[in-house]
Design brief:
The chain contains seven helices and six strands, in the order βαβαβαβαββααα. It is of the alpha/beta class and about 220 residues long. Helix 2 links the parallel strand 2 and strand 3. It is globular and about 60 Å long.
């Protein structure tokens, strides 16, 4: 028995580098289910440390996604846990299923962060790849599922989520915040690398696979 993995595509019709509207607020954004395995308490605590250290800066944290248990979220109990990790107000945005709208919201962010702790629960990681395609400086945890496209300090920042996750994520956020040139370099490379996951390229992988099956 042989098995082959083909990654999910990214719809580059909507997810491509776009001009960001200038804002005085520095925005950190996550999109996906608001669920304990996504590491959002870690993100909230790291965000709080950033706000404390740079108290003269306007930061905001936006979490986009389903919160209710019926839709795959962690429910109100988990929201309370996230909120307890910071003195700041977190913006919760309902899930956005329209890719065009989602691209607009992600594009308003300065940093995209996907701090998942799910060692076995993640599949491929389309959400961070969509942010990368938009040319966002992206932070991901050190899960194997991101290794198909994530290269540390080249097209993303990977933080160690297994030991001292809050401190490690704080340092990643701080680094992106302080070093705009580094942030831009990572973002540009990310958008270039995301091109290989276009619908056209992934379809070609499927066709190649089907051809090899037929030739056996």
């Amino acid at each position: 028995n042989q098995s082959k993995t083909i990654p999910n595509p990214v719809d580059l019709t909507y997810f491509y580098p776009q001009k960001k509207m200038y804002s005085k607020i520095f925005t950190i954004l996550y999109s996906g289910r608001i669920h304990p395995e996504k590491g959002l308490t870690v993100l909230a605590e790291a965000f709080d440390k950033l706000c404390e250290k740079y108290s003269n800066v306007s930061f905001e944290l936006k979490l986009v996604g389903a919160t209710s248990i019926s839709k795959g979220g962690g429910g109100q109990v988990y929201i309370n846990q996230i909120n307890s990790k910071t003195t700041r107000t977190i913006s919760y945005i309902p899930p956005i299923y329209d890719p065009k709208e989602l691209a607009i919201v992600i594009n308003q962010a300065d940093i995209y962060c996907y701090p998942s702790l799910a060692e076995k629960g993640e599949t491929f990681g389309v959400s961070p790849l969509e942010a990368m395609a938009l040319g966002k400086a992206t932070i991901v945890s050190n899960l194997d599922c991101f290794k198909d496209f994530a290269i540390h300090n080249e097209n993303v920042c990977i933080f160690n989520h297994r030991e001292n996750p809050v401190d490690n994520l704080f340092l990643a956020l701080e680094n992106f915040y302080l070093d705009e040139k580094f942030r831009d370099r990572i973002a540009i490379q990310a958008s270039k690398d995301a091109l290989q996951f276009s619908n056209k390229n992934i379809a070609a992988l499927y066709l190649k696979d089907f051809e090899s099956l037929l030739s056996h």
